[in-house]
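Supplementary Methods, section 5.1.

A reviewer requested that the exact input to the structure prediction be made available. We therefore reproduce it here, unchanged from the version used in the analyses.
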Amino acid sequence: MKIVLHHAHEARSMRVLWMLEELGVPYDVVLHNFFDKSLRSPDYLAINPAARVPALEIEGQVICESGASIEYLCELFPEKGLGRPAGDPERMAWLDMLHYAESIGQHVANLTQAHIVLYKPDMRSPTQMNLEARRLLKVLGRLEDRLSDGREFVMKSGFSGADCAVGYGVDVARRFVAFDALPRVAAYRDRLVERPAFKAALPPEGVQRIYTQDFYEAPDV
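The structure derived from this sequence is encoded token-by-token as follows.
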């Protein structure tokens, strides 16, 4: 089976790269630069007209949404146990958590845009940056509550593909909001970043990265 992932370091495609590493299946990666115009080249637009990553090619077909990619990979390799198939008691909750990752991702993307992509101070809105940070904390509060029963991952039965989706967002979120009021979320992240597959999905040393600071402080309003 031919699997090709179009990926940019630290972008949302890292969710899918991490998932592929957890599955332990063969795949190829085509690297793109988040900051140049290569994602808007005619060749790439023919694969993903939105000019974003990921794009996951499997046997000539393409999936462009990271959550859908994770769900499909779980179905393609059910023996790996990273999905919760139809009829499983956790199926509803698993789907909910998989797509809850987009609630985190929405605010993380907006904060990345505000702090990094809009690189000139006069482009930025301090009000919007602070509002997005508060919204992100609110969204992460749901995960804090979910972990209150002592579970280590979003599913009580153990690690799953939903953790690749949620965990990526949590890892980026800590660059924009303090986890002081989210101790369970902080501990959840600590568990995830020690996984060999997560480490394998990180950018190698010396490459251009999206996030060059440990924390991006929102300006006072």
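Residues 17 and 201 are 6 Å apart (CA to CA). These observations are discussed further in the main text.
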